[in-house]
Each structure stands twice: as C-alpha cells, then as structure tokens.
Specification:
468 residues, alpha/beta, six-stranded mixed beta sheet, five-stranded parallel beta sheet, 15 strands, 44% helix, binds pyridoxal-5'-phosphate
Length: 468
C-alpha cells in the first residue's frame, strides 16, 4: 500500500515513511492511494474472533508489503495486553437501541490509548529497522500527552518530550503525565497556555538544524498510523450488534475529527454505516459546517469537555480531500484560505454529498451536565462529559428519526468519568472513582521539568536529556 498527501505534492511513499514523517512535506496529511475493502462474507467471518486478530486483519491491509498480518496481530496483542477489559472495547446497552462503546480500558483511561499504544510499537519497530533514534516532541492540553508518555515508556529508539501548560491541565491529567518516570519520557510544564506550547513545538519543527540534529518526529492525531487502530473498534462494535447484515449509526464526540474519520474509513472498507453523528460542545465549527458548507474559525471557548475545545479540526482535511474527488490542488487552496482568512466554503453539491452520511450536533455545558445527571439517574451509570455530548446527540438522532428505527446507534464513550471528576461530580453529585490500577495515582511521585515560554529553553532541555 502506498500513501499520498491531501495536498497532492508528496508521495506516493511507503507506510513506514508516512508513519515516521507524520505530516506530509507539502503541509498535507497522508492517506492510502486507495481504500482496501472486505466483502460482506469476509466481515461475517470476523464474528467471534479476538479483538487483536481482527486488528491484524484490518490494519495489515494498510501495511501490505511491509508488515504482514501476523506481525500486526502480535503488535496489537502487545499494545493491548495491559488493557483492563478482556474484550478491549466492550458495549453497554442504553435505552432505545443506543449502545455506549466503552473506550477507556487503557492505561490513561481515554480512547487515545487504543491508537497510541499501537503507534509507539510501530515507531519503535520502524526506527530499529532503520537503525536510528528519534525525538518526539508534542504539545498537549491533557489526554494526548498522557497517552503518549504511557505508550512510549520503555521504548528504546524514541525519546519523548511533552509540553503542557503549567497549571492548566486537570490534576488527574497532570499526574498521569508526571508520574511516568521511565528513561526517555519527559513531561515539561511551560509557563504559558496551550497555544504557547503548540507554538513552541511548531517553532522547533521549523528550525531545520535542530530538527535534523535530533531526528524530530510527531505523534499528534494527523499521523495516519494513529487513525488506523481506531478503525478496528468500529468493526468489532458493529459486528457485536449484527453487522454486516444490518447497518449501524455512530455518534462520535469530536475535536480534531480523527476518531470519526476512522469510522468513515471503516465504512469505505465495507462496514455498512447508515450515519455518523458528529457531536461537538459549544465549540461548534463542525456543526456550522454541516449546516451551511462554510468552515469558519471562531474563538475557542473552554468547556466541560476540554478535549473537544478546538476550532481547527485538522483531520477534516482528509474528508475534504475525498469530498473534492481527491483533488489535492483544490484542498491546498481551501486550506490556504483557511490559514489566511480563517474560512473556506464548499459548493452545495459537495455539502449535500457529505450530508448523505454525516450530521452535526452540538451541546453546551448545561446540556452536558444534564445528560450526565440523566444517565446516572436512569442507568445508575456515570459518564464523562465528552461521552455525554455523544450520548445526547445519539438520543436526539433517535428522537428526530434521523436514523432508521431498526438501526442501532453506537455512541462512543471516549473517557472514563474519573478522568474528569469535577464536572461529573458537579452534574451528578457522585464522585467517580479511578479504576483499580490507578487508585493510587494521586499519591504517586511526580517528576517534571518547568521551562519559560522560550524555544531556546525547550531545545536546550531536549539536547541535554535525549539518550542518543
Ligand atoms: C481527543 C478526545 C476527543 C476528540 O477526538 P478527535 O479524534 O480529536 O475528534 C474526544 N474526547 C476525548 C475524551 C478525547 O480525549
């Protein structure tokens, strides 16, 4: 399988190159040159197989000629062996044929573990094969950073440095980052906000001398190999509810459009999907796009679901590439408009083709709290604020007959409620408890660096502490 860029000027190149490059050289995002697919009988034959075998079967279609099915299955087995539910991604039935897909059984109790645990192994294998080391530098507002530090602990070929805004991540998120104390993984508190952290990362990438000297790499959600493992749980959850002999709908709480795009890929691969409900908090750029075909950036407002406090959904570029008939030049133009003027639009027929499959939905903080409370009162089950946005969207879709009555709706539960205890407590008067393995998290010893908002300080720290 070969990979090309959404902006048409990079590739075709190998899976391994796409993996290690992360972002394409023309500023675009990598995608395979074509979508592999399964027949209905091939999908039917997945019934009853373990999660990691299905993972091997699905993901190896994207690594053809480089990594074969057994290798991927082995990597997945290793990636998910520490997960605390043997089904890896189980379903929990709610009312009205709505089902929560619980994606919080990894070490940092949010869905990012499903991709990051696999990615770290793929990275390590590729670098070892090339006999080189790399430095991963990233910025986080919470979940990605903890997932990355957990995933890369103990990996030989990679040193990881994660910048987070001092005092602006939740206490649970901070502990999850700073209590990982293996060699090669570093949490760095920056005296600034999340945008400052991201700007520092960008500045380091733009410094070609530094980038080449340390072998700088990125693992943010634009990396194709982070989307790939997310395709798997769309298949396994749909299989559990009757696929491929019945279509499904999915409600996906969304920030960067990564998770929901993985679902769209599952559909291209042959999984029958009636609809994706793209659910957002008050940061409603995607909802507005699905209403009027205009992508317009506005200010980011903090909400109860911070991992969706985003106004630039970077993975949307992949869908745009498809909607525009894989015209890289047209995508490059749209993205240039967006960068310069904060806005781009698509023709009505393009919007209409998107609306065949996608609907937008947004919910403010009041609605989110009410949904957490309603779910607890009705099911005696606590959900986190991100999952609440998705579940409310699913119920709304059911009430509005947006999907056929006989179509199950799978709503993605993206984090454990104990990851966002304050919001959950405020809404439901219940204090969620951390799962067993994390019960002592808040008393673990912390280790972190603190730096000023200054690129030279970050570079100095990386140079002093990388192992290669
Ligand atoms: C990252 C994250 C999201 C948003 O996912 P995208 O793939 O960026 O759309 C939603 N909920 C939680 C808990 C997250 O950590």
């Amino acid at each position: 399988m070969e990979y090309i860029s959404t902006r048409g000027k990079d590739g075709p190149l190998s899976f391994e190159t796409a993996l290690l490059n992360g972002l394409a050289r023309d500023g675009g995002l990598y995608l395979p040159t074509s979508w592999p697919s399964f027949s209905a009988s091939e999908i039917r034959a997945m019934h009853g197989k373990p999660y990691v075998e299905i993972a091997g079967q699905i993901m190896s279609r994207f690594t053809d000629g480089e990594l074969h099915e057994e290798q991927i299955t082995e990597m997945a087995a290793d990636a998910y062996c520490s997960f605390t539910c043997k089904d890896i991604a189980p379903l929990k039935a709610m009312q009205q044929d709505i089902h929560l897909l619980e994606l919080f059984y990894g070490p940092t109790i949010a869905f990012k573990d499903y991709a990051m645990q696999f990615l770290s192994r793929a990275f390590d294998a590729a670098l070892s094969r090339q006999n080189r080391q790399a430095v991963i530098l990233g910025a986080t507002s919470g979940d990605t950073g903890s997932a990355a530090l957990e995933a890369f602990r103990g990996r030989e070929a990679v040193d990881v440095f994660i910048l987070f805004p001092e005092g602006r991540v939740s206490p649970v998120q901070q502990k999850q980052m700073t209590s990982v104390r293996d060699a090669g993984v570093h949490a760095i508190a920056v005296k600034g906000d999340f945008d400052d952290c991201q700007a520092l990362v960008k500045a380091c990438f733009n410094d070609a001398t530094f980038r080449d000297k340390v072998g700088l790499s990125a693992v943010n959600s634009i990396n194709w190999a982070r989307l790939m493992p997310q395709i798997v749980y769309y298949f396994t959850s749909a299989l559990a509810l009757g696929a491929p002999d019945k279509p499904m709908a999915f409600s996906v709480p969304t920030g960067n459009f990564g998770n929901v795009f993985a679902g769209w890929v599952a559909m291209q691969m042959g999984l029958p999907v009636e609809r994706f409900i793209v659910s957002s908090n008050r940061n409603d750029i995607l909802t507005r796009f699905f209403e009027g075909g205009v992508m317009e950036r506005r200010d980011v407002h903090p909400s109860l679901s911070p991992s969706m406090d985003i106004q630039v959904s970077s993975n949307f570029e992949r869908l745009l590439f498809e909607l525009l008939g894989r015209d890289g030049k047209a995508v490059a133009e749209a993205m240039q408009n967006f960068a310069e003027r904060g806005l781009f639009s698509v023709e009505d027929k393009v919007l209409q083709s998107a609306l065949q499959v996608f609907s937008g939905y947004c919910l403010d903080d009041l609605g989110t709290s009410a949904e957490i409370k309603r779910c607890f009162d009705m099911h005696n089950y606590l959900i986190d604020p991100h999952s609440a946005v998705g579940l409310a969207a699913a119920r709304n879709a059911r009430a509005a007959n947006l999907v056929d009555k006989s179509t199950p709706i799978i709503s993605l539960a993206c984090a454990h409620p104990a990851k966002f205890p304050d919001a959950v407590h405020q809404a439901s008067a219940q204090m969620p408890t951390l799962p067993d393995g994390l019960a002592d998290l808040m008393s673990r010893e912390e280790q972190m660096f603190t730096v000023p908002n200054d690129m030279a300080a970050v570079q100095k720290l990386v140079l002093e502490h990388r192992r290669s």
